[in-house]
Amino acid sequence: MKFLLRRLGFYVLTAWAAVTLNFFIPRVMKGDPVQALINRYQGQIDQDAVHSLYVLFGLDKKQSLWQQYVDYWNQILHGNLGISFTFFPEPVSQVIKDALPWTIALVGMATIIAVVLGTLIGTYLGWRRGTWADSILPVMTFFSSVPYFWLGLLFIALLAIAVPIFPANNAYTPGMTPSFSFAFVQSVVQHGFLPALTIVLSSVAGWILGMRNMMVTVGSEDYVTVAQAKGLPERRVMYGYAARNAVLPQVSSFALSLGFVVSGSLVMELVFSYPGIGAQLFAAIGAKDYPLMQGIFLVITVAVLLANIVADVVYVFLDPRTRQEG
Amino acid sequence: MTPPTTQVRTDRAAARSSDRRPILEIRDLAVDYGYGEDRVHALRGVNLTLHEGEVLGLAGESGCGKSTLVYGATRLLPPPGLISAGEVLYYPEDGAEPVDVLRLSDADLRAGRWQDIAVVFQGAMNSLNPVYRVGRQLMDAIKAHRRDSTSQEREERARELLDMVGIAPERIRSYPHQLSGGMRQRVMIAMALALEPRVLIMDEPTTALDVVMQRQILEQIQDLRDRLGFSVIFITHDVSLLVEVADRIAIMYAGEIVEEASGKQVYKEPRHPYSYGLLHSFPRCTARAVSCRASRARRRTCRTSPADARSGRGARTRCRSARRSTRSSSRRRSARSGAPSRACSTPRGTRSRPSSRSRRPGVDPACDDRSRSRGTGRRPRSGAGNSRRSPRTWPTVIG
Ligand SMILES: Nc1ncnc2c1ncn2[C@@H]1O[C@H](COP(=O)(O)OP(=O)(O)O)[C@@H](O)[C@H]1O
Ligand SMILES: [Mg+2]
């Protein structure tokens, strides 16, 4: 418990540092995004509106930096991340809210599949080292060493254009209204298949390798030999003793990779024109949409921190040595 | 050093052991590590018989293959270890024909493990899985072999086992990292006794412990054996300890059993120079006596590793250089003391128990040829390893 509290304190500190950084970066950058916006809406915005924009975007030159900082925190804590320039006048929080579920569902699902699959295959390969099954490894490593965008394009060319089984872009058939109807869900699954497949293919090798190597290491531990000597059934030894301990590092990398689900999907969303957070980030950078960028960075930071907290909690459950019992 | 009472007991036991039924018989067991040219012959045809109710001590320097023998005989050799020859015969309780452990089917092997032969491994410190509670690890062995037992019965048994080795039964709720080294060692002993095996193999179960703890655990083991009546193979490099606890002692050297006799015999008249070295490498009495005796004993024996022995030249080359260095210094010494240097061959019986007087420079343990061929139990095989066995290859020992 003490351990978790200490970790929590650390995360709070990290979150504070990240938000503060997020506050300062746009302020030290050159360029005036409000001016850019005014130019875009030439003549349609009067002077009062311009001033309110400055206040809204937190670029009010008349306020002290400290006052701006306090206001900034106040806004964040109320879930107000400002207003997006590109989607003016839509608030940033709404833009993120629209994009985030797509990313989390697709990339999150793909990551979980990759982890489970990779860990299972790795367990088997590590246990039955030196059999024909080892030849899976080079194939998987090939997929992970190919640049992701190339892999994505290859699969689009093969399975969406040459043999049009799957759609090449979007998250669902354009024109459908999002709902939980069967037709819509089916459309979503169909559209998500290729992106998910490519993500799994490109990342599973890492999970296999990690697990396999840990299995080899743990397999030579004395307690595994003892488990064998006790005459436990082979599956009990393999899962209960070897894999149970070998999986610990996998758990922490899994939690970390969950944190990067939010950010790590940029290339995939571009290749498959998927309306997720990565695509929004890309658009925001192109349009110098500082509030949106800030908002997305904030979400990414929070996601990574949350994932770390989850990793810590899970680790405490899995490894009694991290517990400090009285 | 050896209390008379113990000695009498071991003598009786030794006399009894010959007419006892064998329970585990290791025949010509050979184990290699690795493949092809680079392989290491860790065991080169080991013969060893354990009788019912007997404590068989196995001693030898570190790296001579004691643990390999344990792993080989229980079919637990880690890669790249390979059994290249031999049999391990286990004699079932009901007097049926012995079974060769090395040729058992996987299912039969698993069924027999722990039930027939249980092992306390050398690394008892790391023998417990850090993520499971001690109780669970005690109970899963019982569960695997006694399918119809209830979880209450198993827990009851686990508590009883801990109590038996002197650990508070509540400790079944502890994780291994919450126990001290000595406690973990005891837990492993308790675990090994969980199914009341007929054979208990203990690979240096006390080496990592301090002397007081060592003694406590040893007494416990002896006590338990007297009560439960299992047979024990007790491995250590502490021969003086074996003299106390073992009915019979086998001395291992470079992957072979070089001497096998009752504890008393080995102690009184070690016939192999290595046994002698082992026996007398333990400090006694005054500091001065300690240091010179120990260094002398060290010089007499010649360490070799299977890796060197692989080529068949190992022992010799290493001993030669050793001989050269000892010779010059010993010549000086013998010139001073006036004692004649003598090498080799003291047939059993012609020499009394080595007293501190007779162990003065010049009088030395023998490279008795007879003892060696008896110890290994067979004629030298042809091949590369052969030259090692000629008398000359043993260190010519000069005081
Ligand atoms: N995994 C291994 N690979 C190669 N050689 C090994 C391996 N394990 C042990 N050996 C060799 O086998 C010999 C016997 O080792 P071991 O049985 O552990 O000795 P002991 O238990 O008597 O100290 C040693 O010389 C060691 O170098
Ligand atoms: Mg050993």
Automatic annotation (TrEMBL), chain A:
It is a multi-pass membrane protein. It comes from the Bacteria. The keyword GTP-binding does not apply. It is found in: Cell membrane; Membrane. InterPro entries: MetI-like, MetI-like_sf. The chain crosses the membrane at residues 7-25, 99-127, 148-168, 188-209, 254-275, 295-318. Keywords: Membrane, Transmembrane, Transmembrane helix, Transport. CDD domains: TM_PBP2 (cd06261). Residues 100-311 form the ABC transmembrane type-1 domain. Coiled coil: none annotated. Belongs to the binding-protein-dependent transport system permease family. This is Peptide ABC transporter permease. The lineage of its organism: Bacteria, Bacillati, Actinomycetota, Actinomycetes, Micrococcales.
Automatic annotation (TrEMBL), chain B:
The keyword Ubl conjugation does not apply. Pfam families: ABC_tran (PF00005). It is found in: Cell membrane. Keywords: ATP-binding, Cell membrane, Membrane, Nucleotide-binding, Transport. Residues 336-349 have a biased composition (Low complexity). It is a peripheral membrane protein. CDD domains: ABC_NikE_OppD_transporters. Residues 24-279 form the ABC transporter domain. It comes from the Bacteria. Residues 313-335, 350-360 have a biased composition (Basic residues). InterPro entries: AAA+_ATPase (IPR003593), ABC_Ni/Peptide_Import (IPR050388), ABC_transporter-like_ATP-bd (IPR003439), ABC_transporter-like_CS (IPR017871), P-loop_NTPase (IPR027417). Residues 296-399 are annotated as: Disordered. Belongs to the ABC transporter superfamily. This is ABC transporter domain-containing protein.
